[in-house]
Amino acid sequence: MSDPLLTVRDFSVVYDVEPPVEAVKHVTLELQRGEILGLAGESGCGKTTLAYGVQRLLRAPAVITSGSVVFHDASGEHVDLNALDVEQMRRFRWDKISMVFQGAMNALNPVTTIGAQLDDVFLVHRPDMSRLERRAACAKLLDIVAVGRERLRAYPHELSGGMRQRVMIAMALALRPQLMVMDEPTTALDVLVQREILRQISQLRHEFGFSVIFITHDLPLLLEISDRIAVMRAGEIVELAPARQLWEHPQHEYTRKLLASFPRLTGERGVLVR
Ligand SMILES: Nc1ncnc2c1ncn2[C@@H]1O[C@H](COP(=O)(O)OP(=O)(O)OP(=O)(O)O)[C@@H](O)[C@H]1O
């Protein structure tokens, strides 16, 4: 049954430079609640512009030239994101949508414990929580992402890259968003750690019911984690299909080309994490 979280219609973004770059062209898609949607396509095809654009995270020279983005809130309200002012959008983003950036683990403050950094998220966005409630919530978050509450007092340099990235995921989870946008979240990590983290993201979305937009160049990885995959080329979505269908019966010639460019895919397929 269809239960959309985000409806994107005829969405276009132009970088107003000379000559102008039509980075996203008339994209229409519906993201389902609890779904992991992979955005695939070669560098420069517009994945990041699309994912940032729907959250209105783009700055000049980017201009949204057409389209609408409607967020179907769990409360039953339908929010037209284009109609929100800057402050409303900022609050909305923190509460409902969170982001994990590539290399986010390096964004942790090196001189503050990870517990204190998690605590800050609640301090700023949930001012009504008591100190004890915040501490309990931070400990629970570290347990959820399998870093473990005993690391609350650890400094970032005392953790491995994979653990630091898990801490970033914990931060992104903190306010229980309905949508998580992940931009190459595991690219800097080795393959085994990557797999572990992906498996966990997949489990967590079942547990918490959030949707994920997952951006990466790594199509084999997307095939493992995504429910559906949107293949982008030159600003357009050329194919959008369930992961397995896309792999077994790619419809668009570009999808076939993209699949063929990953030798890993011609061998035995990795273990499905879904
Ligand atoms: N600030 C900018 N000014 C002008 N053009 C830009 C700007 N940012 C991005 N572009 C152009 O917009 C197009 C889409 O870029 P975008 O970063 O969205 O692609 P991408 O698929 O996410 O690429 P990558 O995987 O390399 O991050 C590209 O042609 C890029 O050169």
TrEMBL record:
<dbReference type="InterPro" id="IPR013563">
    <property type="entry name" value="Oligopep_ABC_C"/>
</dbReference>
<keyword id="KW-1278">Translocase</keyword>
<keyword id="KW-0067">ATP-binding</keyword>
<dbReference type="InterPro" id="IPR003593">
    <property type="entry name" value="AAA+_ATPase"/>
</dbReference>
<keyword id="KW-0813">Transport</keyword>
<dbReference type="GO" id="GO:0005524">
    <property type="term" value="F:ATP binding"/>
</dbReference>
<keyword id="KW-0547">Nucleotide-binding</keyword>
<dbReference type="GO" id="GO:0015833">
    <property type="term" value="P:peptide transport"/>
</dbReference>
<keyword id="KW-0472">Membrane</keyword>
<keyword id="KW-0997">Cell inner membrane</keyword>
<dbReference type="GO" id="GO:0005886">
    <property type="term" value="C:plasma membrane"/>
</dbReference>
<comment type="similarity">
    <text>Belongs to the ABC transporter superfamily.</text>
</comment>
<dbReference type="InterPro" id="IPR050388">
    <property type="entry name" value="ABC_Ni/Peptide_Import"/>
</dbReference>
<dbReference type="InterPro" id="IPR017871">
    <property type="entry name" value="ABC_transporter-like_CS"/>
</dbReference>
<dbReference type="Pfam" id="PF08352">
    <property type="entry name" value="oligo_HPY"/>
</dbReference>
<dbReference type="GO" id="GO:0016887">
    <property type="term" value="F:ATP hydrolysis activity"/>
</dbReference>
<protein>
    <submittedName>
        <fullName>Peptide/nickel transport system ATP-binding protein</fullName>
    </submittedName>
</protein>
<dbReference type="InterPro" id="IPR027417">
    <property type="entry name" value="P-loop_NTPase"/>
</dbReference>
<feature type="domain" description="ABC transporter">
    <location>
        <begin position="8"/>
        <end position="259"/>
    </location>
</feature>
<dbReference type="InterPro" id="IPR003439">
    <property type="entry name" value="ABC_transporter-like_ATP-bd"/>
</dbReference>
<dbReference type="Pfam" id="PF00005">
    <property type="entry name" value="ABC_tran"/>
</dbReference>
<keyword id="KW-1003">Cell membrane</keyword>
